[in-house]
Amino acid sequence: MEEQGWYEARVAKLEAEKVDLLALLARGVELMETTAVLGEVHGELIRARAKFPEKQSSAHEGWAVLMEEVDELWDEVKGKHPERRARMRAEAIQIAAMAVRFIEEVCGTDYGVTHES
User: Which residues, 6 or more positions from 87, have their beta carbon under 8 angstroms from its beta carbon?
Assistant: First the structure.
């Protein structure tokens, strides 16, 4: 009788570990996808800095750049282009890159301390 209790406990533990492993694998896939997207954002940030090397001179300028990108995304959202999803993704990547640029150039990189422009 005691042996069967041990077996059931072991099976229950293995089932729990299987669930934990599946959750871990799912999290790993999610992290890989996020890492890929962040890589695209980084690439866009490098491209934008090469094309527009001047730093954003004020919070208002940074905000205007972000709003321009958001407007471009909105145009794609409303559009009917056959490659709509790819075009929306490209605009969203640009927004993320410009948000990073805003954080670095307008807010500063001293983590938690902001600078007024």
Answer: 76, 79, 81
* Distance (Å, whole) CA 96 – CA 90: 10
Q: How many domains does the chain have?
A: 1
What confidence tens digit (pLDDT) does each residue in 4-63 have? 677 787 777 777 777 677 777 777 778 888 889 999 999 999 999 999 999 998 999 999
Please tell me the distance from the alpha carbon of residue 99 to that of residue 73, in angstroms, as a whole number: 14
Spacing of C-alpha 21 from chain mean position:
25
Is residue 25 assigned to a domain?
A: yes
Decide if 81 is inside a domain.
Answer: yes
Which residue type occupies 95?
I
